[in-house]
Amino acid sequence: MNYLEYRFLVLSDLYRIRGNTRFLPFLRTLIFGDAYRYNFWMRTCQFSIGHPALKVTLYPLAWIMLRHYTYKLGISIPYQTQIESGFYIAHSGGIVVNANSRIGKNCNLSHGVTLGEGSRGRNKGYPTIGENVYIGPGAKLVGAVTVGNNAAIGANCVVTSDVPESAVVVGVPGKVISYAGSEGYINRIDYEDKIRR
Hints:
This protein is of the alpha/beta class. Helices cover about 35% and strands about 20% of the residues. The chain is built from 6 helices and 15 strands. It has helices at about 5-20, 25-30, 35-50, 50-55, 60-75, 190-195; strands at about 75, 80-85, 90, 95, 100-105, 110, 115, 130, 135, 140, 145, 150-155, 160, 170, 175-180. The chain has a 6-stranded mixed beta sheet. A 5-stranded parallel beta sheet has the order 1-4-7-10-13. α1 packs antiparallel against α3, α2 packs across α3 and α3 runs antiparallel to α5.
């Protein structure tokens, strides 16, 4: 990851929260915004580990900060996880993501969400989340499930099979109840041109 890619990821996460990317909102959110602090240090670990000079200077600090916020906020998302731009954590607490999971652009994670490994059977593997996906509080996605773009996963839902695009899934096990999708849950996704300028 180069600096421009890192900057874009950090600012896209900020834009999803604040609706702008100016310095003062960034500083305020970095100081007081719990979930954003986690995102920032996770992205900083991803960036600094790949650069020889930063690996021995910035990376140790970023790793320590990430570990600190892992315990303080109850969020466990390894920095190796492939997470695209506009990642939004609504509330901290009880969030566990396997490092081999893949998360697309503009994903919303709520508290109590697990993206976990399936270690045997037909679902052996890790979740893949599409773009513009909303995952509600307490939802569990286990194994090699693919969640299509614009889908919404309801609170406390357990997902063990693939979710089609724009589906709304609820229950245990998760069942599709409509194709209204995540519209209204996923906001502030018009950051591409504003950040790259």
